Amino acid sequence: MAEKLSAAQRSKIRRLSEPKELSPDEEGGELNIVPFLDIIMNVLMFVLATVSVTFTATIDTFPPRAGSGARAPTTPTLGLTILVVPDGFSVKAQGGNVAPGCQDTGPGLALARKGADYDYDGLKKCVARLKTASPDFKDESSVTISANPQIPYQVIISTMDAVRKDEAGEELFPEVQFGLAR
142 and 173 in contact (C-beta within 8 Å)? Predict the structure, then answer.
């Protein structure tokens, strides 16, 4: 026979079997990671917003020389100098100014602009012709580029690219120096 529980016993069993609310320090191992993720996302957004990524290409150049401490060369040198002006390219070599058309020496611009664009292909052909003009110049690798202050930076870079290699990919003047326009 089963004994019947008293009212006090039933009350105690009901009270003990009721689910009770745990205090924060007694929680059953649950980890609330939402605040942690909020902090990480804020930090990540800040880092992405403040980091600037730039990709740069470098071209080796040499600054203008201030003194005359260099010795005079023992073999003839081309001494190629290109002056970039708003109207085109003025080219100077051992014999003096290169005349228009890049065929002879004389006054004027060696290569005038073609409309709004500079004639980089003509400049490439001109410096290749000057380099092959004498066997003494075949080992020449230095060119000095000067530009007026109002010349855009991209024009100077394109000029450097034009004189570094010819159409076949052979090196013309890989050592670029900057000169001061006077």
Answer: yes
Backbone angles phi, psi at 175, to 5 degrees: -90, 100
Distance CA(82)–CA(173), nearest Å, equals 12
Residue 78 has a CB neighbour count (10 Å cut-off) of 22
Could you tell me if 102 and 90 are in contact, meaning their C-beta atoms sit under 8 angstroms apart?
no
Amino acid at 121: D
- Enclosing H/E stretch for 12: helix 7-17
Average pLDDT for consecutive 10-residue bins of the chain (182 residues)? 84 86 68 89 89 67 59 68 87 81 78 85 85 80 86 88 83 83 63
Which pLDDT score, from 0 to 100, does residue 40 have? 94
Residue with tokens 């020496």: 105
Helix (H, G, I), strand (E, B) or coil at 127: helix
Give pTM, 2 decimals. 0.58
d(CA 136, CA 172): 14
Question: Cβ distance 10 to 3 under 8 Å?
Answer: no
Q: Which two tokens stand for residue 107?
A: 């006054």
Nearest CA to 78 among 120, 148, 135?
135
Exposure string of 79-96, with b = 16+ CB inside 10 Å and e = fewer, is ebbbbbbeebbbbbbbee
Q: Is 45 in a helix, a strand, or coil?
A: helix
